[in-house]
């Protein structure tokens, strides 16, 4: 009988909660500055971390139809209960959107998050019309299917089509980052089983993104290049999503596959790639596929270079330089950090403990001086091979300005 009475009391309390504001609710609301319960603001808008949304979140949470107001392309302001002045809506609130469960502070299942965020975006005309940058980073939780967070390698059947529908409705999309899906824990080595579903889904819809000028891709996504006929900037992204520590034949190398795919787009002028296997064949392919390039960023390391080695062996660097000479329009060149170039500098102790205390500070100054001398040595090796069109040469974080106004060899930054 006591349990029955308690249950009735709880039901009565819940039934009246929608009509009465209980004292503790008012107190908690004043503590947090916004109504208690699920946010009225769509999650994809919160994920933008737009300064205006962060600044006015308390007021926005009090607007019953906040989603409709923000997503209406004709809306110019929001009026919040309890706040006398309307809040103007900035026109760039949807300029950068994210389908991403791999950021700090976000803990969501990959496929589920992607479905929900895309449905929210699809239902928001203002987001579709004004989005200029879309970042996709779907981390699929692997492990055992008995784990609560396990997700299958193959995405939900509707997801590729939903992606295609959303992308096709973004006329102003200029920058498209597809970092992953890739297989968690595999560092991209088995990426094909997951990405192929999207490649097939996009191809079936003949998806084209004519406004995209900047494309950042994870491994196995080279077919996305052909979807962007007006592409001018191409780069790799995703860190460990790419397989860094393996030797590849030209037929199986995922980096080579991306470079070759770029040959189908004629307007690429800027290319950035981070790999531990820069070698003559790869750089030759870059020259062949993107002959109009003005900016080349060679990040990572030269193929076969022994990291943290004091051995002086610049031959790997010297095998690349004659190829760089042949880029007819190159204006800006980035090379890896000097400790990756085989000029007798190992970058110093990689352990932070070595830099503590008075002796650590003295050691840090010694490393900085060695780095300066090594950078000068690498610059002297490199400059004779540079094409006459080159304006800046960057080695690691040091840039040499070769423009006549600053004078040859002037340190730019």
UniProtKB/TrEMBL annotation:
Protein's UniProt keywords contain Signal: yes
InterPro entries for this protein: LRR_dom_sf (IPR032675)
Keywords assigned: Signal
Signal peptide: 1-17
Protein name stated in the entry: Uncharacterized protein
Organism: Mycena albidolilacea
Taxon lineage: Eukaryota, Fungi, Dikarya, Basidiomycota, Agaricomycotina
